[in-house]
Amino acid sequence: MPTRPSTPSPWKAARDYNRGLTPPVRWLHAIAAALRTALAPALGWLNTPGQRFWRWPILLGTLGVLILWQYDAAVAEWARNLRLGGDFRRELEALQQFGGLGSLVLVAVLVWTLTPANRRRLADLAAAAAATGLATYIGKILIGRPRPRMHETYDAGVILAPTGVHPFPPPLGPRHAWEFWQPIGSDFWSFPSSHTSAAVALAVFLAVLYPRARWVWITLVAVVALARVLFGAHYPSDVVAGAALGVIVAVPIVTSRVASRRFPGRPPPNRPDNREPRGRHPETPTL
Fold it and tell me: How many domains, the chain?
């Protein structure tokens, strides 16, 4: 009985591929194939259907925070010495509110008016925005990282919570960063960035409903993150963590219609024009 020839490994196939090429080119092929072979189990785990929405953000967010953390102080000092003024500053200050209450109301009005079939999906937007905001707020007060504006008192790597206290002057006295019921302000709630996580939550919703404009939503999220760093409100690692948290919380809420499916009636179409691109799940945002 004839035996089926075994398939060579990717590394062996790349090593033997086109021996007429120069040795450096063959070596690069072999190295790339060896890396793919070594990373195949990890990539398979990351791309498991139904779980990639949180595995990739956690991995990339963690790597981003670890890498940027060591440069936070230098970037914050550069931002402090940066002089932004005029119309550019005013426009940036306005755009950084993408994801805030005003933009949520504006998006809700536009969706309600222009695409009536998607009106029920506004419940998913509300749920995603509320859940993302709550998760970010809890993270802020439990971590207790001072903002860049507190650089004269704290280094960029300082985390106060859960045991650290700040010596507020009398009559308030020393307080923990998690004592949100006290008038301690938000100077100790830098990590993660709530503006960035809120922007991601809104962008996820819009990317699901209007995927053709996904690069617009991605650009707006990037503008929000950049503005928060330039204005000295956050460190770079803060906005990366906020973006990752926004994806992890908002994607399952919006794509599963966790809120809109609670309402009676016919389910809305996946897209306003009822057309779906081939080879891609209709509810998976590309961000």
Answer: 1
